[in-house]
Design goal:
single chain, alpha+beta, 8-stranded mixed beta sheet, 16% helix, hydrolase, AB_hydrolase_fold, S9 family peptidase
Amino acid sequence: MTVWGAWPAKEGFAYVSDESGRPQPWLQTWTGKRLMLPVDGAVTRLAWRPDETRLLAVADVTGGQDYRLAELDPRTGEVEWIAAEPGVRREIGVPYSSGSQPYSPDGRLLAYATNARDATCLDVYVRDLTTGASRMVMEGDDRYVPICFSPDSRHLLVLRFHQNTDQDLFACDLETGRTRHLTPHEGPAKYQPGGWTEDGIYVCTTEGRDYLGVALLVPGRPLEWIATPDADVENVIVGPQVVWTLPQDQHTMLCTSQTTVELPGFASQPFGYDGFVPRFAGDRLLVQVGAADRATEFCLVDLATGESHRLTDFSDGLPDDLVAPETVWFTAADGLEISGLLYRPRATAGPVPAVLTVHGGPEWAALPVHDPLIQRLVRAGMAVLAPNVRGSTGRGLAYQRLIYRDWGGGDLADLEAAARFLRSLDWVDGDRLGVHGMSYGGFAALSCLTRLPHYWRAGVVICGLADLETDVRALPPTWSRRVVEWIGDVDDPEDLARLKAASPLTHAADIRAPLLLAHAEGDTTVVINGTEQLYETLTELGKTVRFIRLSRGHLPDDRDEWDRLDAAVVQWFRDHLAPRSDAANEATGHP
């Protein structure tokens, strides 16, 4: 079961869970009583109206990421769709995040973004909740999303989300219609607002820095820096006091100007991705805490005492032999230091096979939270290494931008270094390595299988990019204005040649390892065409390949389908990473 995005109220809190089989809103009182509020589609995030009479839900009804907005009555469960035209994408903050506040403090307005006018942009709208009328307050020439309102509800803070490493903030005056650019800067910079107070806007930013620091932004003045550690500050939370979060190995630290509290696990991601963003519940913080060897739970944390009170028991029923990873480091060919999470099976006889699993994004990270697939692999006697190759988040701006216009370049060298690292471990059988990934991670896994074929005995790719030209041309329209800087220009002959050289489909004949592919027909992020073509090519070449067609979306949103897919992945690696005789190794060409 997966949970995320807890949002506190007076009587308890709301959150999203796939306990019923598909992500839905749930309510839990502070005393532990729970209730599901069913909504059509897969719910991605929630937000309370300030008076708590309605709960906003963002739902993907079709699996095509045309997110729709609905308000739920928590007393009756009645659902009112307020922005639900098909084929239009809507956001109430940064995509895939939970960190913004879409309602005005006075409860009159709801802010959201939509690409209804132009499929390649997100415009910002404000809806009057009394009349139901909506009006555009900022016309976009890129992805613009609302973040929060000023304390007097007169201004709306808007983020231009050009890249994951390049953003800008604007203040829209809702009375005059004027817009003010708050963060003019040169070169890429991140701006991640945490809240707007009478003092100003608290942000995590890399302005003039490599790592995210905490600053107070007052329009017309230089930034007032509050915390500038040599690590990325992942969130700043505004309430009775100002709190920011810092990573410490596999734990999160809650920091104020007076104190620091270490949480019993991982609890913060930039913009609240995956719901990992603390929120004030009175004078305490409602925190989503994850760890690799237990389920993600919701806790109340007292900053004054440092005490943490667990509110949920989602770990009940999980196996009692789950494994926590070790943080490891290894060096790429160019000297770059790469980190990863290494999972070692419990008592085993002799060297074990290992699976390299690559996260998506690519601007994401391998996180120390419960991953059912990883734990299944480990329980089946396999080691797992989840690396944070160049382009991953959490290592500063420069490290994250190393992937830009270099997909299948330096990242592939990092993955080869990961394979060599696994081979160097005396408890790992270096001749029985597998590679796995989803989305960008699928591209990375295919790059390994096609361009480093001698390392691998098996591969699994889910919703992966097989042909960069095809996939770039079919990316979501709202990504079109960032893709040249991010991946490359398919209309430039030199760039196109580079992308073709890096495309797994170009090197399909070099694949040696049996390959399991999975993809959904309705995937609007990475279209299925490349996977289908790769499957046909490998079949014609007589390679060992299997293709699982998923039901919908970029990744399954049905818990039973996820479970079946995970089971198939584990069985694939069981079958193809099993010990072989020397004669069989010689016959297949594996070392």
